[in-house]
UniProtKB/TrEMBL annotation:
EC category: oxidoreductase
Highest taxon of the lineage: Bacteria
Pfam families: Pyr_redox_3
Annotated keywords: Oxidoreductase
Protein name stated in the entry: Putative oxidoreductase CzcO
PANTHER family membership: FLAVIN-BINDING MONOOXYGENASE-LIKE PROTEIN (AFU_ORTHOLOGUE AFUA_4G09220), FLAVIN-CONTAINING MONOOXYGENASE
Coiled-coil annotated spans: none
Organism whose genome encodes this protein: Microbacterium oxydans
Keyword match Protease: no
InterPro entries xrefs: Auxin_biosynth/cation_transpt, FAD/NAD-bd_sf
């Protein structure tokens, strides 16, 4: 039975009078806020633990030059309208939108709390962050990918005397003026970086695979087909690919100048090794570069769930309903949102709803079993 105290004041993350929560949401990006909204509507006692000091999820950390017009689109949070697509900085506008949403819906936020690990203590989940811990019957993991950037290893990488940056470090185009920049990666971020840099400075591009371009309109059907590909992987317990990696790449008006300069045609397959002043291609030729910008993506930030042994032998976490659901097949108390097919703002919204229902189902199951009682 819902305890009905979900929106009462919290003291150090423990709802007044409740020592075992019905649920905990870890992460307060789009996915975590959506989950919390739906849990609240179902009257399920929970707190949202978030590692950041302030609202905004990963959007807080995106580069200053990224405006709301540049982003592919931030979907509206449940029960709200989407933030405007204007010239405002995304790292200001989205955090403000999330902050207002948290307040309007009185979501039970606790921050900053960086969760280190989650253990199973005789049927109760113990969520630990340093010397603090919370006990809960179910868990919604909404930790995104931003805190887990992926950097591939190439021979000689540590000998490079220039600058190596990942997408998470991107300081905006002005930083690169007068520098020879090699952008590595075949995703949407690489395309955007080249669009911004090629008109300003000498820019090269290397990708592992030939990029797949799409010139047709990106219809909802095409989006659904791309999401279905990721679902198939998650249904098999494979590590998820990003949705963008299976949609194909498109150039937007902002990238047309770089296209006119031939920056996208000059793409090369990956280099063989890195040397102090540049990179050596597979054919033996050498390219001097000042900066290597690794736009090589992210992996799900789920290391804290390792003690629960949710991963399949294939390396990913298998989700129910053929990968369309949010419930971990190995442990129905755990929901994953913003993971695999739901790693977009629109997918995260839907996943939040599905997760709240999954929590409700799991609570029904534990209540049918003998339970330790709340105080
Ligand atoms: C460069 C870039 C541009 C993108 N542009 C778009 C776009 O235009 N439109 C779109 O739909 N999608 C876009 N995406 C994808 C989109 O950002 C995400 O799918 C979605 O916003 C992620 O929401 P989330 O809630 O899953 O994660 P996040 O927004 O990353 O939020 C995760 C939260 O969890 C917290 N957290 C992480 N680990 C812990 C921990 N151990 N303990 C406690 N808290 C933790 C973090 O502090 C953070 O607040 C983009 C992604 C990237 C990388």
């Amino acid at each position: 039975m819902p305890c009905g105290t979900w929106n009462k004041p919290v003291a150090d993350g423990v709802l007044l009078g409740v020592s075992i929560l019905d649920s905990i949401v870890i992460g307060a990006g789009q996915a975590g806020l959506s989950a919390s909204y739906h849990l609240s509507r179902l009257g399920i006692s929970h707190v949202v633990l978030d590692a950041d000091d302030e609202p905004g999820g990963a959007w807080r950390h995106r580069w200053d030059a990224l405006t709301m017009r540049d982003v592919h689109g931030v979907a509206e949070l449940p029960g709200d309208t989407a933030p405007p697509r204007d010239g405002a900085r995304a790292n200001v506008a989205v955090p403000a939108y999330f902050a207002a949403y948290e307040r309007a819906h009185r979501l039970p936020m606790v921050r900053p709390v960086a969760v280190d690990r989650v253990d199973d203590d005789d049927g109760i989940l113990v969520v630990r962050a340093g010397d603090r811990h919370w006990r809960t019957r179910t868990l919604v993991n909404a930790t995104g990918t931003w805190t887990h950037p992926f950097l591939p290893h190439y021979p000689g990488m540590e000998t490079f005397l220039g600058e190596q940056l990942h997408t998470v470090d991107y300081p905006g185009p002005a930083h690169f003026l007068g520098k020879r920049v090699l952008v590595v990666g075949g995703g949407a971020s690489a395309v955007q970086f080249i669009g911004a840099l090629a008109p300003l400075t000498e820019t090269l591009w290397a990708t592992r695979r030939e990029p797949v371009w799409r010139n047709d309109d990106f219809t909802p059907e095409a989006g659904a087909a791309a999401v279905a590909l990721v679902e198939q992987r998650v249904a098999q317990g494979l590590p998820p690919q990003s949705v963008v990696s299976v949609t194909g790449l498109m150039l937007r008006p902002q990238e047309r100048e770089a296209e006119r300069l031939g920056a996208y045609d000059a793409r090369r397959p990956m280099f063989a090794r890195i040397e102090p002043d540049g990179v050596r291609w597979a054919d033996g030729s050498f390219e001097r570069v000042d900066v290597i910008l690794w736009a090589t993506g992210f992996r799900p930030a789920i290391g804290h769930l390792a003690p629960l042994h949710l991963r399949s032998a294939a390396g990913g976490i298998q989700l129910d309903r053929d990968g369309r659901g949010t419930t971990a097949v190995k442990d129905p108390r755990i929901q994953l949102v913003g993971y695999g097919p739901s790693a977009s703002t629109i997918g995260a919204n839907r996943a939040g709803r599905s997760a709240a229902k999954g929590v409700q189902r799991a609570l029904g199951a534990v209540r049918d079993a003998p339970l330790q009682t709340s105080v």
